[in-house]
Amino acid sequence: MCPCERYKKPRSESRTRKSKPAREGSGETSSNSSSSEQSQQIIAVFRAVFTAVFTAVFTAVLTLPQRKQS
Q: Which residue windows does the record flag with biased composition (Basic and acidic residues) (predicted)?
């Protein structure tokens, strides 16, 4: 539950940050918004994959010394 809450906050912040540059390009706001939404989805997936791999490696490193000791 905690990691889910942590990811929701950065995503909302990234949305507000990316909406500002989209406003700057007044001529192509529609195309910028669609591309920003796609990039947000890609970033969200990348974060999920990165965190999953990082946690797996982190837990493996922590469990290695325990296995050697036992």
A: 1-26
Residue where the block lists tokens 């905690």: 2
Residue whose token pair is 């797996």: 56
Phi, psi at residue 25, to the nearest 5°?
-85, 80
Buried/exposed 10-48: b ≥16 CB within 10 Å, e otherwise? eeeebeeebeeebeeeeeeeeebeeebeeeeeeeeeeee
Is the full-model pTM beyond 0.90?
A: no
CA distances from 49 to 39, 43, 58, 64 (A): 15, 10, 14, 22
